[in-house]
């Protein structure tokens, strides 16, 4: 391969990767079309290439479909309605203003796409409950980690999960990462038989997105690099 052709190949790869990453969306309405087990396995093989400190590979993932997914969803929904979830632990109180503003913007866009007034508490609660059925996706994933590990290992789990989402998108699948499962570890572990040292970190819906659903067309803006990155030492 010549230097020129190698350059073109690298450009093509970069264009392909950029296209996949920038087209990934959080999908909250799915078609009923099933996802083949073999396809899920290929996605997991891709994601397992993620880096981890000391190559510990701390990620654990439970992939559910069919009756097992239905049983898990019913258990989590029952726990949620009974108020048996743990308090959310992923957000500080008070939330810094910059993040509070972004969350408020998300909520406005999200509920508007569903035609739900933000003051309609009952409708918002019904929509929240759709999390526990994986928004109708044929496949659900529960991501877990050994609770004894420190934050850098949780970062490794995040890298693995991002690999799942990108590989899925490259294969024509859509995803929705969902921290809403985290408060219901007890119900989840009871259904899945998780060992005592594991803790539920989040869930994820996986399937073929319903592109006609308005909620999947809601635009969620991203900050440009100059708002979150400092590039130092480069020539001007």
Automatic annotation (TrEMBL):
Residues 22-208 form the Nitroreductase domain. Gene3D superfamilies: NADH Oxidase. Its cofactor is FMN. SUPFAM superfamilies: FMN-dependent nitroreductase-like (SSF55469). It holds the Pfam family Nitroreductase. InterPro entries: Nitroreductase (IPR029479), Nitroreductase-like (IPR000415). Belongs to the nitroreductase family. It comes from Ramlibacter alkalitolerans. Keywords: Flavoprotein, FMN, Oxidoreductase. This is Nitroreductase.
